[in-house]
Amino acid sequence: MNAPSHPRRGLNSGPGARRAAAELRAPLLIAAGLIGVPLAIAIANYFDDDKVPGGAGATEPPKVDDQTSYPMNHFLPGAGYYHAPFGAWFPLPFNTHDPARGWFRGGQWRPTAQEDDAERKEVQRTSGFAPSNSSTTSSGTRVMSSRPSPQAVQKANTGATTQHKANVMRGGFGSSSRPGIS
User: pTM for this one?
Assistant: First the structure.
C-alpha cells in the first residue's frame, strides 16, 4: 500500500487540488478588500468627525455671533463663506471668478475684480457698517475681517444647525470634505 508522501496531504492532494485553491484565493481576496477597506474608512471617518467642531460626531453645531470678527472667506457648513465687507455668508468664496458671469461678491456677480466707489457705498449702505479691520497688501488686495449683522448670524446659525442635523442623521460615512451649502 502506498502512503502519501506528505503528512498534511490526504486524498485531495495533487495538481487539481492546488489549482482549485488558487482559483478560490482571488475571489476571497477581492471579497476581503470590498468589505475591509470601506469598513476601515468608515471607522476612521467616525473618529475624525468627533474631533472636528460641528462634525458628524460632535454634539453641537458650530455657532457664530455678532460680537466676533470673522475673517474673509471663513467657511461655515450650512451657511457658506463669509464676505467681510458685506457682513454675511454666501454660497461662494469672495471674488470667485466665472468667465461667463464675472466675480461673485456679496451675493451678486460683478463685472470687475476690484470693487469701485459705487460698490463701496452700496456695501456701507446695505450692511450698515464699515469693516472693523481692513488693510491693503502690496498687491492691492484687501485683507479684512468684520462682525456680521444680527440677521446674518441668525441665518448662518440656522443653516449650520440644519447641516449638522443632516450630518448626524447620515453619520460620517459617505460625507465629503465640504458639505453642501443650504
Answer: 0.51
